[in-house]
């Protein structure tokens, strides 16, 4: 998309209804926009999906079809109509895409009872006592504005087009993609390396993401385990990846969805655990996986390999079932979590104008601290407004109350030796001083002024708020019609128009370490390849 078209969409989006996406929906939109769901390029309608299978066919595996649509609750759907354009946003409010609605339907209703085909002039009156709790499906064409911001391991967040070319760049012929690679044993990785050498393949270790947040220590431990596993592969023959896949079930249809996505990333072979997809364990599971390939149920020519058949380089593939990874209490991505005792708690309190970069730096900091195995609670201003302070207005009194609520939660995190990262606008000095007073007796308090000039913030305007404020659509907007009182003596000041996010994070991490909030070294490797 051209820069001019993206700018036009952003301007249009300021006038449109918004839909805030869940973590799983963000992944779907990213997969659509990057081509990982090809040939699907839109949120599908009933016509795209085709007829529902007859009762006699339910449970049978038909030729796979990616099913990508948007689910919204009935209350939200009542504001939508066919032909309407809506903007899709992430949980920070950033604009990702504009959707033109072509279909709205209730999957629990038979075709003959389908919802009326509304128009812009006659929107659907959907909510009733019976349907209020239902999730309805929405389909239509989308135009991308941007992809979700990923602050955890950006070097592992590769696109399909980039990864598909990686074997050629390394002068290899094929690609083996290992699903949930962090759960393989060392012996299994050695077996994968032997297979790759035999077929001249690049090995891509897909880390089990499943929507884990940057503050979840399980994600960072999985990354570390996969980086450790790279030692089992010859240099230049293995690559880590963190693809935006969230599990949608544990059945064959989920397996086929993943296989289609992996094929678009360039995989010619895929190693999976049949137990993850309800195919059974031992020889039964491996045979069921082989049968899927043999019956031509995959749209690609990909070869599926059971991780249960992996034993080691000497034996390659053997009949020793269950050697792939431990499975005593099986749950995709299940890992230990906890905190390392003996560290001092802290609150990193970001303040600055809308669009200054507070959330971007805060999320990058959360991801970095997670990599350092530190327990973190991220209290983003927009998310707190949505879930903790949804009843509040933007009056001065309610703004103060919202910040005090954030301060209380942060004080409890700090009291229990965690690190709270707060990223509200917090425009008033007296309120920020109140929060400092709540926390300083319990642990460290870092006021971080994101001092990006308002001219830069207005130019960025990721949520379209400045445009609305100047148009008179938002009253008491900080920096436009309401003052922002700059901190007089912040612990750290960052102008994101002059300082890179990584450098800003490094400054904060150094300060936390100097204050005794972090122990150990900071030298985890940051490359994706072995």
From TrEMBL:
Positions of ATP binding: 352-359
GO terms for biological process, alphabetical: hydrogen sulfide biosynthetic process; sulfate assimilation via adenylyl sulfate reduction; sulfate assimilation, phosphoadenylyl sulfate reduction by phosphoadenylyl-sulfate reductase (thioredoxin)
Cellular component, GO annotation: cytoplasm
Pathway: Sulfur metabolism; hydrogen sulfide biosynthesis; sulfite from sulfate: step 2/3
InterPro entries per the UniProt record, alphabetical: APS, APS_kinase_dom, ATP-Sase_PUA-like_dom, P-loop_NTPase, PUA-like_sf, Rossmann-like_a/b/a_fold, Sulf_AdTrans/APS_kinase
Record's keyword terms, sorted: ATP-binding, Kinase, Nucleotide-binding, Phosphoprotein, Transferase
Molecular function (Gene Ontology), one example: sulfate adenylyltransferase (ATP) activity
Pfam families: APS_kinase, PUA_2
Entry keyword ATP-binding: yes
Enzyme Commission no: 2.7.1.25
EC top class named in words: transferase
Catalytic activity reported: adenosine 5'-phosphosulfate + ATP = 3'-phosphoadenylyl sulfate + ADP + H(+)
Composition bias, Basic residues: 327-342
Domain called ATP-sulfurylase PUA-like: residue spans: 3-112
APS kinase domain boundaries: 344-495
Keyword Protein biosynthesis: no
Matching PANTHER family: SULFATE ADENYLYLTRANSFERASE (PTHR42700:SF1)
Functional summary from the UniProt entry: Catalyzes the synthesis of activated sulfate.
Family: Belongs to the APS kinase family.
Database matches in NCBIfam families: apsK, PRK03846.1
Protein name per its UniProtKB record: Adenylyl-sulfate kinase
Gene behind this protein: cysC
